[in-house]
Design brief:
By secondary structure, the chain is an alpha+beta fold. It is built from 17 helices and twelve strands. The chain is 47% helix and 10% strand.
Length: 478
């Protein structure tokens, strides 16, 4: 990895506006992979830690720009190549030279402006990475190398992303499929949601990928050159998908402004920053519109910098962090494949358990709670049992429509209902602790003999977090 990091830095240093603080370095740890640490002196509030030029980021704009180098018909003002500079640019990609025939001229020319603009960022970025990172090097026996190679090289291996549940679900050869049944409901819901996005995105681009994979020989005029099977292509796409998902950073993409999920950029080196649960203390991102000094690199969405937050870093080897958001372990596992032992953002969704308890044959409770918009969405975190649960149990226990309605309107305090619902609430929480403890014991037994403990251990950590929240409320009721 050291060699790859040096190559990445050498590539980044080719841009004048690249900056990296002289006192940071990459450290590899078994728990969180690569991360950025302080090597000497200190870094204080608002200091720039890393600053990456627009042209070195991978996003919807820079990809359209690069595709337009090969596709003369692709012209989007302010995004694609300036055709006045085309001759210069053509030289830089080998046209007219005696270099190898680059299949990208043929392939990228097939992509119409309409097709490209209709793709989401995830679809375009994953299609592009698939072609640049895998297809072109394989077809050309590494004679044609992508501009982005130094960036691709530092991304995680399949092994490193193996604890993401949607991969267990989507990859037909996943060794971890049997773990899905142990996932808590919230993580399972995330897995289902993400798997659906994966399939939709693969449906949107797979036709092109399969077609290109079929026709590569005629483009290259090479017989029996290596191609991928369709299953291999999906597997590569899946890996790319979660590489993107676990490393992208929010940034507004002007041509995709109205598509929330498309507003991201991938930023080399910045993507080494690991997550901390602490919000508003550590490093923070800043996106500046293009600098004039970048005139001949005038592509993309702007310079992306990371600055130091409130937290002073002054201990040698201490890690610099970014907060990815106020995320629970269920979410972190599903999106990024890791969990945090003491995560203050954990919560439990106990909607099914509450509904099972309060539902009656006559649907009386459901009717009343639905009418007042209090049916379902019942959650608990360390600080509180949600108001929705209190309302639901208050009605379930008292069936006093008038008073519960006044409670929801704020005319009656929670204190009136609390003593009435405490026994049923305690019973519910106690039974949940028993259920989760049973699952936890099963998983711990399995983990003792498992060859690969990481994936199981992550699920164990989620259940431990649940039990901690529940016992906290059981021990602190008044
Ligand atoms: C943006 S990357 C950070 C760099 C990454 N560690 C690497 O080796 O390239 C996000 C990934 O880092 C890991 N990660 C980030 N924060 C972590 C944390 N607090 N604990 C464990 N793993 C973490 C997860 O694998 C996650 O998918």
């Amino acid at each position: 990895m050291d060699v790859k990091i040096c190559a990445l830095l050498a590539w980044l240093k080719k841009s004048d506006s690249f900056y990296i603080a002289p006192n940071i370095k990459i450290n590899d740890s078994p728990e969180s992979g690569r991360g950025i640490v302080l090597s000497h002196h200190s870094i204080k509030k608002n200091d720039i830690i890393i600053s990456i030029p627009s042209s070195k980021q991978l996003n919807f704009h820079t990809i359209l720009y690069h595709i337009s180098k090969f596709n003369n018909d692709l012209n989007i003002s302010g995004v694609t190549i300036d055709r006045d500079l085309a001759d210069q640019e053509k030289n830089s990609v080998g046209v007219g030279s005696r270099g190898p025939i680059d299949p990208r001229f043929e392939l990228y020319s097939q992509l119409s402006k309409e097709y490209l603009l209709n793709l989401s960022s995830f679809q375009l970025v994953s299609l592009y990475i698939l072609v640049e990172r895998y297809l072109i090097p394989k077809w050309t026996h590494n004679r044609i190398i992508s501009y982005w190679k130094p960036f691709f090289e530092i991304w995680p291996t399949k092994e490193e992303l193996r604890s993401i549940p949607a991969i267990w679900n989507c990859d037909p050869n996943s060794q971890n499929r049997s773990l899905i049944e142990y996932l808590p409901m919230a993580a399972r819901n995330h897995m289902t949601r993400i798997s659906k996005l994966v399939r939709e995105d693969w449906d949107a681009i797979s036709e092109v990928v399969f077609e290109w994979n079929e026709m590569y020989g005629s483009i290259l005029g090479v017989e029996n050159a290596p191609i991928y099977t369709n299953d291999e292509l999906f597997s590569l796409f899946l890996h790319n998908y979660f590489t993107i998902n676990s490393r992208c950073l929010y940034a507004e993409i002007p041509v995709k402004r109205n598509d929330r999920l498309s507003n991201f950029t991938m930023v080399p080196y910045v993507d080494f920053l690991n997550h901390t649960c602490e919000v508003d203390l550590h490093c923070y991102p800043q996106l500046d519109t293009l600098l004039k000094s970048e005139a001949n690199e005038n592509i993309g969405i702007g310079q992306f910098s990371i600055r130091c937050g409130e937290r002073l870093y002054n201990n040698i080897n201490e890690e610099l962090f970014l907060n990815y958001g106020a995320h629970s372990n269920d979410f972190l596992l599903s999106e990024y494949g890791f969990v945090v032992n003491e995560n203050e953002w954990n919560y439990l969704d106990i909607s099914n358990d509450v509904i099972e308890l309060i539902n009656d044959d006559k649907m009386e409770v459901q009717t009343f709670l639905s009418k007042h918009d209090y049916w379902g969405d019942y959650t608990i975190n360390k600080n509180e049992i949600s108001y929705r649960i209190i309302v639901a149990l208050s009605y379930y226990v008292t069936r006093d429509e008038r008073r519960v309605q006044k409670f929801t309107e704020g005319y009656i305090s929670e204190d009136y209902f609390k003593p009435k619902i405490t026994p049923v609430l305690q019973m519910l929480l106690t039974s949940l602790v028993a259920t989760y403890t049973k699952t936890l014991n099963q998983l711990e037994k399995k983990a003792n003999t498992a060859e690969d403990k990481l994936c199981l251990q992550n699920i164990i950590t989620i259940y431990k977090g649940y039990i901690r929240i529940l016992t906290h409320h059981l021990n602190n009721h008044d």
